[in-house]
TrEMBL record:
Binding residues for ATP: 30-37
GO function term, MF aspect, one: ATP binding
Annotated compartments: Cytoplasm
The family this protein is said to belong to: Belongs to the RecF family.
UniProt-recorded name of the protein: DNA replication and repair protein RecF
Cross-referenced NCBIfam families: recf
Gene3D superfamilies reported in the protein's UniProt record: P-loop containing nucleotide triphosphate hydrolases, RecF/RecN/SMC, N-terminal domain
Amino acid sequence: MPIRQLSVSGVRNLQPLTLTPHPYINFLYGDNGSGKSSVLESIALMASGKSFRTSQFKFVLSQQAERMELSLCIDDENLGEAELHSLRLKTGDQLLKINGSVLTSQAEAAHWLPVQVIEPNTFRLLSGSPEERRQFIDWGVFHVEHEFMDHWKTFRKQLKQRNAVLKQKEQQWLEVWNPGFIESSEAIDAQRQSYLKRFKPEFDAALAQLDETLEVELAYYRGWEKDTDLASVLERQQERDLAIGYTQSGPHRAELRIKCGKQPAVEILSRGQQKTVVAALKVAQGSLFQKESDRRTIYLVDDLASELDEKHRFALCKLLEDLKCQVFITSIDKEKLTDIWRPTASKVFHVEHGVVTEIDHALPAASTTHD
Ligand SMILES: Nc1ncnc2c1ncn2[C@@H]1O[C@H](COP(=O)(O)OP(=O)(O)OP(=O)(O)O)[C@@H](O)[C@H]1O
């Protein structure tokens, strides 16, 4: 079971709460503005240090509060048990702990909490900047390849140093920094390529289950041209790099191209279809993560009904149920979900004016049915 207990205080309109979620499916329903998304946001904050709704913590912190506190008891089938605690003050100071010991990096919390979010703006993964898609790939690589974080940190340092040299026009230092930059770039690229090779069949299978009519291909651009080694590319681009004070090629320019035939999927697909593709990407990541690490992803599905019709809602719910992951799923009315889907193992929570109450009995156990 991933999250065994969740305590939240100082988040938006939520009253201080402690929840004991179900290991599989958790429905949260309630009126607009009741606080459903804020519960999911709290879990995402613990996992990544960031909200999926705003880049500024001050908007997440309850207007009446001086501090936000989150505590999660985790029971991971592979890593064991842990208690994560996050404290953030209005002043911006923050403290992250695991089992009482201070963590110096968010990556450790992320390691314990492999969270995927599917929410109304999720189609931005297709329409947003390449960085969003790079982060998507890197989430997968980070969670299955243990050395990736070290390669990534080394690469960031090398890139920073190389760019500083370019800005200062200190050409003589380039030959000192280039070998390290090339080595870490190639390590990152190799891990991304290998990951995507394993990822693609998972994606095709998930998409076929969500919508068999959609034909979408994934193509990876590594950040420098195909069939040419990075050393030659850097040499050829050196003059221009020096002129602009920036390294034009490398894994920081990689891109996951998502296409329908030869066209970018975002230009062709409807919003509902885009959301379906993004859901397939996220389900595929969870599925691959599960196969390769023997651990499970936690899915936060906010406002499932937005953009997806009943058939696609059902297909997504069924896929998530089959993955046997812990899922937190919100909807304005319970019926929008429960009319189409009756998972055998679930809990239902009602959210009203920031108060979250577990409804006595879960949904009647019944096999899932849909035409
Ligand atoms: N910093 C804050 N402090 C206090 N209240 C806040 C703060 N930010 C937002 N709110 C309020 O908290 C609530 C947040 O609701 P949330 O978005 O979680 O609701 P929801 O149930 O997901 O709604 P919807 O169904 O409309 O998506 C809203 O009523 C909002 O006005």
